[in-house]
């Protein structure tokens, strides 16, 4: 009799795992049952802001593979709109509710893949169910917002609450649609994923686009009129709003796992080992936005909900479920984003994180250009490096610049991944031609500056 | 009494060395005399094609620092249009000829910095002194070509001989100026700096721009009429030409060094150690396009004339002359170029080079896109990886693609520099956002494919 794999959650991590398991084990060897509570499988949540702005047609374009493809090509039993409500690890069974047809099913498993992703952080105030208030996590959220933006009376004033990636990208999307946009952030800066000095460059660019930025301003509630949102309430008074987008971040969707007794780590996410096995529970796997992972620089567990990790982790789990051997090596916090034409990249630790992890370090900021200074389209590029003292090991890097800036963070990410010192980095053989770089690449200029800063301190 | 540094050659390597030496030693400690036979110091030869095409104003924009700046800011005795004709190592003197004023000067030195660069390879046929025939090595060459292209009768038919970087970039420049352009290459492919399969992608793109490409076709001579070039003669008949650009590559300009007894390596360039000291000759230094350097992958000496190396090597020499300690770590053959909108990057060894160096390897080519497939402007990107067998160590990589493709070679260059295996590389934490990459970065897709290819061979 075939063994059975049950997958809870049909997005990046779950479906990567299921696909890899299928590649290694045929249908006679392994049955695969997938429960997904939503309407879609394997879609790009990261693409939603571009669908909202109108840059990308959606939602179909954002779907990598639909349920039917998984059924026919991969021989999986994919059950959409089914929410798993109970995991019984002793009986090795799950109970799932059919959200549309009603009723419950009970299914046994040999292997269980837990891939429920993340859920938006709920604000601490009421009235979030007023019409015109949107989370931005799923394609359904995106579809609802699109309808609201297109319906009469057309919203003109948007308020985005929270200045993380989603908040910043949604602010951009709304301004591109012609709305007036205010971004409200309780902390000191939007784009707190980079250090304040680099974040200020992003804030400046956003203001240049016409986005109003209010920082250090906690939201205390929402106002509504006839069931429609009318304002965001803050300590400094109400901000009128016809549409409100919540970008307060996400947390691991681990409630069901916790109830079932899966171990939860200090980040609130599920603890897994390098093979994506849930610690101490044979045959139980987890991956994606619901697990925590090792940060290779700080050595600490972190929760980094990002599609690229979910895909890699799911693949690792699936290879292992399929009888192979694979491990997930951890993360270094690489991320890139776009704020209209401005590009932002980061990797490793920010200053605050480096301090928290106990490092002594220096920081340098180097101004350069993305192309030879004389080449048309040359634009400023700012590179920040954080290097351990006195070793010179790279701990973190951030880039803010214009065209072709963001992905250069990968150069620094690979250097950091390999434990290079800034001194080593000054020797790197990087590509040079006037359309792509000055003869001293911005990365090399920054490394040289860091070497000088370290030398000055040790003098 | 101050010691004296004499620098032969006032471009990238020589002036980087001189500047670094000055930073560390004041004018009372070190006199610096620079002899430069041309009209310019420290200019970007790589920018000449863009000046020819009209994209960049020239020649001033291409000059990083002029002689007067070096004289006033760096307290150097810079003598333009002076050609050093003799180096007397026993007396520690050089003799230089004043090319304009006439006469000779004789100057003693304590340290000698040899930085004469490279000279164009001379074709084996005559008539290269006909009007309308141009090498493309110096700003003077660029100025002469610009005059010719603007003068009456305006040239309409251009032939570029040689399909290396300069040839390809000059073909692009001429087609952008509206000339009809034929590129003649004696080898099997233009852009032989990448493997034939990747070079064919470049050739296709060039043909798409309207450039006629003739490969496997050695040139046997030129024809002229009334002193003006009229055709390029080949085994398959003459190709009419109003202007001919020679892109036959360059060789180290080491004749004077050889006469003086400096050691010449197997590449025809000067042999130096890691501190840029000429082997066995205390106080004699060399850097830039006239020296050979270690290829970190093959372990062989190579001659790679490129501004980025010249700058780094000159800096290393200057730090050492200044009393500091620095080494040049060698090269891995990273290079990027642009053929209109097409971008090409390479690092490490090509297949032919890997074979010649004795490696057993596999090659894979992975097709992907520069952005998420659904994001506007997503274009094909082809990544080729060459990995040692059975270790999986990355030996070389090539990228051909459209916007934002070329500089991604840096990601692979840093991986290669650090001796990563393709298996290690699949775990890399690279930046992901829809405007910049698919959720599986092209680099990761290629690494996975290489892992699979290695596994299939060892099965």
UniProtKB/TrEMBL annotation, chains A, B:
What are the residue boundaries of the FAD/NAD(P)-binding domain, all occurrences included?
Answer: 4-298
Keyword set includes Oxidoreductase: yes
Q: Name one Pfam family in it.
A: Pyr_redox_dim
Keyword set includes GTP-binding: no
| Gene3D superfamilies tied to this protein | FAD/NAD(P)-binding domain
The molecular function GO annotations come to: oxidoreductase activity
**Keywords, ordered alphabetically:** FAD, Flavoprotein, Oxidoreductase, Redox-active center
Identify the cofactor(s): FAD
Query: What is this protein called in UniProt?
Result: Flavoprotein oxidoreductase
């Amino acid at each position: 009799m075939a063994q059975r794999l049950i997958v809870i959650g049909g997005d990046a991590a779950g479906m990567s795992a299921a696909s890899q398991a299928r590649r290694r084990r045929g249908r006679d060897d392994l049955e695969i049952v997938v429960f997904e509570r939503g309407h879609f499988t394997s879609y790009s949540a990261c693409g939603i802001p571009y669908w909202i702005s109108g840059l990308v047609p959606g939602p179909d374009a954002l779907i990598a593979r639909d349920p039917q493809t998984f059924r026919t090509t991969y021989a999986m039993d994919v059950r959409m709109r089914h929410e798993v409500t109970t995991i019984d690890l002793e009986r090795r069974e799950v109970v799932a509710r059919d959200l549309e047809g009603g009723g419950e099913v009970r299914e046994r498993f040999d292997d269980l893949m837990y891939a429920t992703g993340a859920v938006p952080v709920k604000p601490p105030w009421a009235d979030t169910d007023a019409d015109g208030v949107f989370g931005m996590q799923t394609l359904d959220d995106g579809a609802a917002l699109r309808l609201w933006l297109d319906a009469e009376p057309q919203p003109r004033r948007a308020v985005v609450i929270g200045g993380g990636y989603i908040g910043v990208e949604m602010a951009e999307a709304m301004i591109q649609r012609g709305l007036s946009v205010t971004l409200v952030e309780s902390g000191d800066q939007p784009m707190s994923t980079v250090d304040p000095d680099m974040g200020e460059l992003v804030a400046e660019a956003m203001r240049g686009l016409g986005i109003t930025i209010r920082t250090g301003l906690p939201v205390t509630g929402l106002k509504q009129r006839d069931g429609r949102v009318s304002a965001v309430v803050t300590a400094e008074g109400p901000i009128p709003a016809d549409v409100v987008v919540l970008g307060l971040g996400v947390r691991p969707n681990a409630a069901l796992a916790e109830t079932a007794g899966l171990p939860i780590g200090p980040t609130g996410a599920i603890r897994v080992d390098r093979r994506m096995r849930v610690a101490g529970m044979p045959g139980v796997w987890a991956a994606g936005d619901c697990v925590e992972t090792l940060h290779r620089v700080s050595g600490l567990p972190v929760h980094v909900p990002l599609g690229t990790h979910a895909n890699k982790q799911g693949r690792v789990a699936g290879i292992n479920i399929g009888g192979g051997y694979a491990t997930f090596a951890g993360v270094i916090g690489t991320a890139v984003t776009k704020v209209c034409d401005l590009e932002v990249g980061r990797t490793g630790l920010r200053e605050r994180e480096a301090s928290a992890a106990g490092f002594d370090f220096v920081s340098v900021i180097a101004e350069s250009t993305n192309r030879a200074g004389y080449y048309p389209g040359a634009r400023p590029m700012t590179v920040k490096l954080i290097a351990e003292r006195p070793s010179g090991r790279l701990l973190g890097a951030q880039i803010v610049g214009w065209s072709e800036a963001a992905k250069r963070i990968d150069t620094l990410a690979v250097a950091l991944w390999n434990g290079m010192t800034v001194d080593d980095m000054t020797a790197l053989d990087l590509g040079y031609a006037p359309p792509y770089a000055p003869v001293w690449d911005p990365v090399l200029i920054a490394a040289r500056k860091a070497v000088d800063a370290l030398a000055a301190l040790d003098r």
